Structures are given as C-alpha cells and as structure tokens.
Amino acid sequence: MLAFVFLPLAEARWVSLLMTLLLLILLGYGRARIGMRAVLPTVLQTVGIAGLAAIAGVLIGKLIDLHF
C-alpha cells in the first residue's frame, strides 16, 4: 500500500506486484520448510494458486461490471 502513497500509479503497480511476488515466494518457502517438502514445487504451487486467484478475481469483476 505504501507504494501507492509515495509513487506514481504506474510505478506503484509494478512495485506492488514485485513485492507481492516476493512475499508469495517467502510464503512458499516457509510452507516447504514447515511441511518438510521440496522447496521449488511448493513455491511454484503457492505462486500459481495466488496467480490463478488474481486472474479469477479480475474476470469475475469484469463479469459483474458487464451485468450491472
């Protein structure tokens, strides 16, 4: 959120995207360590699920916008 306060919108979007990606990678790493699983597949799973959720959110938002 701070990126949107201190940076122009175009730059803030990229900073926000990169910070979110970094945090998802750290989350996946933590999941792998706690669950004693392989790190790379767990990180990819975490980032993939979050990415699909983001895409679904955008698509649902566009669908709702079309109907109202």
Automatic annotation (TrEMBL):
Organism: Planktothrix tepida PCC 9214
Record localization: Endomembrane system
InterPro entries for this protein: Ccc1_fam
Entry keyword set: Membrane, Transmembrane, Transmembrane helix
Any GO molecular function: manganese ion transmembrane transporter activity
Topology within the bilayer: Multi-pass membrane protein
Domain of life: Bacteria
Protein name listed in UniProt: Uncharacterized protein
TM segment ranges: 12-30, 42-64
Primary location recorded for the protein, binned into one broad class: membrane
Gene Ontology cellular component terms for the protein in this record: endomembrane system
Pfam families cross-referenced by the UniProt entry: VIT1
One record GO biological process: intracellular manganese ion homeostasis
